[in-house]
Design a protein that fits this description.
The protein has 218 residues and is mainly alpha-helical. The chain is 80% helix and 0% strand. The protein has one domain.
Amino acid sequence: MDSGFGVLMLDGILKVLIALFISPIIGFIVGMFIANLIFLLSWQASPRINGVFKKLQIITSLGLALSHGTNDAQKTMGIITLGLVITGYQNTFQVPFWVILVCASAIAIGTGIGGWQLIKTLGSKFYKIRPVHGFASQAASAIVILTASLLGGPVSTTQVVSSSIMGVGAAERVSKVRWGVAGEIATAWLLTIPATMAVGALFFWIFNELVPAIIRLF
């Protein structure tokens, strides 16, 4: 089996990297734009308008959930289907229905059970988020992620949502955002990619080199 840097398709890798690194910036800009637009249109409104945005968040939450599934779940489906093709279980790259069902269920269960610490960080660590902030950031995130999905760009939902929240907060007041928390998240983003590459290379070496060598000994 061929391996090494020579087997990498740089055009595809470049497309992935561009989508990953540009999408948070776009999320920040779109979040700031939507928030400024809302503040402009409702500058004479009373604080009770937050009740309206609280109800509107039902719609934006559904849009964000849809965009989450259209992008994040697709990556897992692609990897599983690729494994099925490589191992000869199917001849064409067509995602089976059971793969769709498993990935959709996994992402829903994982978000519902294991995402509370992340939700707490996004919902309270940047600044005190009110319904107007939630509406604007959800709308911005859904727009960016759905657009990326339609263009075939794999993005990180967490990155886009985080940057959208920061953009909305900065639109109201730059000092409102706790930029130290944002820096910690950005550092985690930068470390995740090389760490994932290293773990993937390690597992490939284990299964392609180490395991066969151990089997030959016996």
